[in-house]
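Expect sequence, tokenised fold; for instance:
***
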Amino acid sequence: MSRERAFNLAALALLVAVPAWAQLTGETFTITLATRAVIFALAATGLNIALGLGGLVSLGHAVFFGIGGYAMGILAFHAQSYTPLTDWPVTIPGTKLMPVIWLVAILVSALAALLIGLLALRTTGVYFIMITLAFGQMFYYFAISWPAYGGEDGMAIYVRNGFPGLNTLIPIQFYGLCLAWLLVVLWFNARLARSRFGLALNAARQAPQRVETVGLDPVRLKLVALVISGAVTGLAGALFADLNRFVSPTMFSWQLSGEIMVFVIIGGVGRLFGPVAGACLFVALEHLLGGITAYWHVWLGVLLLFIVLFGRGGLVGIFAGRGAVHD
């Protein structure tokens, strides 16, 4: 067994053991933190498909995260019917909306990624970074100026959407749904990296001119990767909105795009469990150090600086060395 595979199995064991321990000891808040970490890991895994395999440095991935969140919020908003006296939703507890929301979030986010990619992939390098950032800001200010769904104040969803056979209001059950999606996407990511498409995409990232000489279109390969990446990140946004029962324009912010990229860099670009390690460490630092000082990001910056300078493979690379990725 390679060291990277051992790291992956250890990370997976922690994803199961920590919430199970929290459930047994009644630490509900720990389960919520773990759910937040898993959702961020899912979003970062989506970015890792574009960044790790396709070499697409996107500072606008929060666009897809926000689109998924607003898809969830808008559908839930219209599914809730309110009584004029209590102003409380009376239909949504029996409405199993989650599968529908997931499908809509995936499709709408994929469509947005396709349209953005058709324009952004006409550029390369720093220009690609800036155009994705520009799209992120456009969606951010559009959400602020959309009063029908809360505008700058955001929109609350009073009751979490349902899933057939589960009570999603029970934290451990909702965590199980999010973890299941993360494992499915990680499995898909591993298969994608080893597929002919994944190998061609990796080649397009390293030597696009050579890929063209064998009859493949590197831009088309990267566009497909961006669409897949956007769909996964949109799914994460829908789950995040359901976790908080709230959506707001901050889901489109460039700061969130930067955080998602930080997850990937800290964990390891192109590493299968790199986004998982980065997201879990971020949430842990936010919880542990955030209670001590409001400037806890300083320590995150020190860690990021150390990894960029001395551990180019991220946490996974430090542990496993510079072996093959997606092991």
User: Anything to note?
Assistant: Residues 267 and 315 are 5 Å apart (CA to CA).
